[in-house]
């Protein structure tokens, strides 16, 4: 298999209850990719992404039975008025969902022909995170995007089993990769639709820039 990560374990059959742990595990599975990119340009991105995961995990641990689902954590904060705090689980999930939207669009770009990773990332960025970034953070993105490796290097980082010798240039690997990306994007999209619908329903999204 070519992709290490999957949101296939995140059940959305009940739209009001996405379990916290499988969701955070799926997010955590993405982190080794940042490590393999092995560049200081990605460390602010990784810190932010991991910070969101950590905040949500802490909220869950504060009462694991009460906070079994993402929605229960957010609704608890909506009820006590804490959802606008920048330290809230509501804010952490808002930013996590935006990062995941970026990843979804990035993978769509990668599988739709373009082999230039910077172009893929810039197109994905314009459709997602850029709308919430002021010029300073847009500059951070511009630096990170220049540090992206060539496609062959990048896709070899997506290979699950490092012990198997993968030749990222082989047609077999390319085929497996595209299939796995498609499945990954389908599951991620399904989860994002539910979270987005929930955020819209409770007016929790915001157009404010950082
Ligand atoms: C939020 O950050 C916090 O997340 C949130 C709370 O503190 C809130 C308060 O306003 O701020 O300022 C951050 C924002 N986070 C807002 C920016 C950080 C640096 C972002 C740099 C630009 C993005 C570059 C994208 C990277 C391109 C290359 C990637 C190629 C693959 C497998 C790789 C996946 C990459 C995923 C990209 C994730 C981007 C994450 C940026 C999120 C962001 O914009 S709270 O914290 O509520 O938990 O307290």
Comma- or semicolon-separated keywords:
210 residues; mainly alpha; 9 helices; binds ligand EIS
Helix content: 55-70%
Tally of DSSP β-strands: 0
Q: Would you tell me the overall average pLDDT?
A: 91
Ligands in the model, by name, code or SMILES, are:
ligand EIS
Q: How many individual helices?
A: 9
Structural category: mainly alpha
Strand content: under 5%
Taken in chain order, the helices and strands follow as HHHHHHHHH
The gross shape turns out to be globular
Question: What's the story with the biggest beta sheet?
Answer: none
* Rg over C-alpha atoms, rounded to the nearest angstrom: 17 Å
Distance between the termini: 38 Å
Extract low-pLDDT stretches: none
Give an overview of the whole structure.
It is built from 9 helices and no strands. The chain is mostly helical and 210 residues long. The structure holds ligand EIS. Ligand EIS binds next to α2, α3, α5 and α7.
